[in-house]
Design brief:
With 263 residues, the protein is an alpha/beta fold. It has helices spanning 2-6, 9-22, 28-54, 69-79, 92-101, 116-128, 139-148, 180-188, 220-237, and strands at 64-67, 82-86, 106-110, 132-135, 152-156, 165-170, 173-178, 192-200, 203-208. A seven-stranded mixed sheet has the order 1-9-8-2-5-3-4, with helices on both faces. A two-stranded antiparallel ribbon has the order 6-7.
Amino acid sequence: MAVYVFTPPKRRRRTARNFQRMFPDLSARHSRRLARQSFRNNMRTSFDFVWSYAVPQHAMHRHMRAYGVEHAYEAVDQTGGGIFVLAHFGSWDVAASCALASGLQLTTVMGPVGPDLVTRIAVWARRHQEMDVLMSSNAARGLVRAVRRGRFDAILCDLPERGDTVDVDFLGGRVKFSTAPAWVARVTGVPLLPVDCWRYKGLYRLNIHAPVPVDRHESDAVIMQRVADVLARMIRRQPSWWYPFSEIYVDGSAPGAEPQPRA
């Protein structure tokens, strides 16, 4: 809550407005409440980033519940690997720890995280958990090689900081999504598996959803729209675990306005 109080008012108002885009009937008072809860949960996951990498894999099951892991095992049996696609929702690092504890091998992509020392610590922590970490400058080939070795690529698809993007309908407006998951899926033939992980009654819940269909002849926009639809359903159920702190929407319409038609 202290972080929220000292956050610039413009950013707090922007977060509340983003929640109003998702829920057009939400009052200003309730949108501010959701914004506060979102800042609080985001700070909680920041602490849990450190905590999760200190918990041995064999002990992680005491702190989590995993659902849909059979989808990942089926992907390995049928295609040799898969791609986990996530949004800025819940905790990505705890999701990774839960997946590793469930016997799933992960490869992920990282860019700079603030100062160079912070980036080095984050990379060390993830590699310490036997996770492959690719730096964004040479990630494409590494992601393809990883799934061909039976691993799972883990990719944050919404609000990408770099790389090719496509606009999709997402939580009340048009939002940029990375095209990397669709590209890797087409090249390798492995499925896309939407994933979310958030805290409930003292335990983290890892949810691996059913595979999203990918046809080699479909556009990035069509494929990533399917992914966005799955992720949006969970975020609407647990909105306080979504982190819409930046400029989310690219269509520029006001809260409550009709969304733009799909491309």
